[in-house]
Amino acid sequence: MNKKIILTAAVFGMLAIVLGAFGAHALKKNLSIEALSTFETGVRYQMYHALFLLFIGMTNELSKKTKKLIYNLVVFGVISFSGSIYLLAINSLSSFDFKAIGFITPVGGLLLIMAWGSLLMNLAKK
Q1: CB of 46 within 8 A of CB of 82?
Q2: Which long-range contacts (CB under 8 A, 24 or more apart) does 99-106 make?
Q3: Half-sphere exposure of 104 (CA within 13 A, CB side)
């Protein structure tokens, strides 16, 4: 499980760097300042949670069951939260109206909060 968590952390971190560079260079010319700031928020939260997964994968303070729960919450949270933010930020570049999927963003945020809450509750029990 630890290897899977750390590999996912590495993929999320690498993609955050790639998407951050893409936003700073390629999208800068095509998006408004507000849309670019929104895109950067998605990148920032993705990187925060890549580092969070790295910590989860390396700690021995949590059970395998707790690690699996946190892993699933973070993976689905990042995909829902950051993924929907990326799509909403580039909405002006697409013929599809991504505002229709805007409800996914808070669901992803709730999953991320639940992951941190799981960490808090499990460490507080010890």
Answers
A1: yes
A2: 104/80, 105/80, 105/81
A3: 17
Given a contact cutoff of 8 angstroms between Cβ atoms, the answer to whether 74 and 54 are in contact is no
Kindly report the pTM of this predicted structure. 0.91
Using the CB atoms, write b or e for 69-106: b if 16+ within 10 Å.
bbbebbbbbbebbbbbbbbbbbbeeeeeebeeeeebbe
Report the 10 Å Cβ neighbour count for 121. 10
CA distance 62 to 55: 11
Question: And the tokens for 104?
Answer: 């996914």
Residue 93's pLDDT is what?
A: 80
CA dihedral 38, 84, 114, 14 (to 10 degrees): -80
Residue 50: per-residue pLDDT: 98
Q: How confident is the model at residue 29 (pLDDT cuts 50, 70, 90)?
A: confident
